[in-house]
Amino acid sequence: MSDTYAKLVGAPGPAQQLAKKLGLPRPARLRRTDPTSVDRPLTPGPVLVLSDDASTADADTVAEGLLAWDLDVHRDARLPDHARWGAVVLVLTELPHPAALSAPAMQLGSVLRSLAPGARVVSLSRRAPGPDATTNLAPAVAAARAGVDGFVRSVAKELRNGATANGVVLADDVDVRAPSVRGALRFFLSARSAFVDGQLLAVVSGAGSEPADWARPLTGVAAVVTGAARGIGAEVVRVLARDGAHVLGVDVPAAGESLTSVMNEVHGVALQLDITAEDAAARILDVARSRYGHLDVVVHNAGILRDKLLANMSAEKFDDLTAVNVTAPLRMNETFARPGVLGSASTAPRVISLASTSGIAGNRGQTNYANAKAGLIGMTRALAGSLTDAGGTVNAVAPGFIETEMTASVPPVPRQVMRWASSLQQGGRPVDVAEAIAFLASPQAGGIDGQVLRVCGQLQTGQ
Ligand code: NAD
Questions:
Q1: Cα(372) to centroid(ligand 1), Å
Q2: 233 CA to centre of ligand 1 in angstroms
Q3: Which of 2, 20, 197, 235 could be a cystine partner for 430, CB 3.0 to 4.6 Å?
Q4: 120 with 184: CB under 8 angstroms?
Q5: Residue 67 and residue 44: Cα distance in Å, rounded?
């Protein structure tokens, strides 16, 4: 479950030299969270805040907010000799026309060679009209906003040394000071977003709140994670617990031993349960309520693979996969997504599903899997807004290629191709997906609802 090639070329030596000569990918070591000192430092160097002329006032506000996080904030691209930028924040919230991007784009271009390894470029812009939306926006404004998406995704493809570019996209009535704008900005700046690249995340409302302690934003929260015995699920358990949550882990009885050992690590509760059982949600609720008094966060992580080309696919393989990967979360949400079931006086509901880039782009041999994962995205969008009254949200995370036992079953050549097909030229780790889930579970993500956040290193497939 590790990328031997990346290890070989990751350290100076003959393998690295040979890879360089042959023009083969040399994936960078990514900047990930240090479990002993989460978010310290937040960025690997000073932060440059740039904007177009019309967005200067918002840029001032954003810069003040960054100072409050003790960052070394600059508005001028001149740096002392040998210093390297830890991040560049592009404030483009009032961009009037695509041509107005030119000045901040040129300024960004001029500092790209002086970014620190693992640096971040983060844009703040406003939402362009979606495919189904009617809009009152002037065509030039709509073009400017849509243009930022293309720009950021392209910058992400040009960055090197584990640096990433992502964007926060604000709905029209959302202020740059809104908790989820600051929450998303902080997530993208931090090491928590190591494998999120080329993504634009929408903040749809001013809901949510900033945590009292950014290192433990889930204090007092009770969460359940399905498929918790190994892989991504086990890491979600660890990261939610690190961030302060009480965690209940669910997995099939056959995985009981490893489930117990994962849950013991975090002093959590292990529940052996097949999520396809009719009463799965009721049993989870019973255990959570008797142990913690309430249940707040549900992470639909359990999933299986039954890959076959459609011409060779049996109904059994198709149906087994559908039952676990999409029918079970749909059924459980009939309970969990009903108002009044999740949350408490001091904690807000969160439902987070594990989709997949296969559900966005399609994948050969995965018609059954892509149907289920795209189905979870449809479910997420349909449930958006359903928990708003209680401050709740329903979102999905779509991992790309993550190094787990599930993907270790992929044959070696396509496995290496999948790693190299991302802008970061490597597979992600379970912790990368877990960090995104923990962010969406947090109070500072309360204004993010009905969204799909890809954790894929900007895999060159799909949107
Ligand atoms: P994994 O196979 O390593 O772990 C999945 C866990 O779910 C296992 O512990 C398994 O026992 C459990 N599970 C399966 N069926 C269950 C059931 N009926 N009831 C309860 N538990 C059940 O998988 P992973 O790679 O950690 O993936 C976790 C999730 O992320 C899955 O939904 C997967 O589809 C999704 N995902 C993974 C990747 C990747 O690259 N690994 C990419 C995209 C999406």
A1: 13
A2: 7
A3: 235
A4: no
A5: 15
Cα separation of 325 and 323, whole Å? 6
Which residues, at least 6 apart from 281, have a Cβ–Cβ distance to it below 8 Å? 331, 332, 333, 334, 335, 336
Q: Is the CB of 132 under 6 A from ligand 1?
A: no
Dist CA 275 CA 323 (whole Å): 9
Rounded mean pLDDT for each run of 10 residues along the chain, 463 residues in total: 76 78 86 83 96 98 97 89 91 98 97 96 95 86 97 98 98 98 98 98 98 96 98 97 98 98 98 98 98 98 96 98 98 96 97 97 95 98 97 98 88 88 95 98 98 96 61
Sheet holding 47-51, edge to edge: 73-74, 47-51, 85-91, 115-126, 164-170, 200-203
Per-position b or e across 89-104, b if 16+ CB within 10 A of its CB: bbbbbbbebbebbeeb
Give the residue, by CA position, lying nearest to ligand 1 atom 12: 227
Residue 401 pLDDT: 94
Q: Quickly count: other Cβ atoms within 10 Å of residue 206's Cβ.
A: 17
Structure tokens, 294: 């309430």
> Does 369 participate in catalysis according to the annotation?
yes
DSSP state, residue 165: E
How far, in Å, is the centroid of ligand 1 from the Cα of 269?
A: 19
Select which of 187, 188, 318, 369 is catalytic.
369
| DSSP 8-state secondary structure symbol assigned to residue 128 | P
Give me the helix-helix angle, 231-242 and 430-441, nearest 10°: 50
Residue in the block written with tokens 């584990």: 162
DSSP state of 5: H
> Hey, which of 232, 298, 324, 418 would you mutate to test ligand 1's pocket, going by the most ligand atoms within 8 Å of its Cβ?
232
**Residue whose CA is closest, atom 44 of ligand 1?**
356
Q: Does residue 304 line the site of ligand 1, with CB under 6 A?
A: yes
Atom of ligand 1 nearest to the CA of 369: 34
Q: Cβ(93) to ligand 1 under 6 A?
A: no
CB atoms within 10 A of CB 290: 9
Q: How far is CA 36 from CA 33, 122, 243, in A?
A: 9, 26, 12
Domains located in the chain, CATH noted:
47-203 (3.40.50.720), 222-455 (3.40.50.720)
How many Å lie between the centroid of ligand 1 and the Cα of residue 219?
Answer: 26
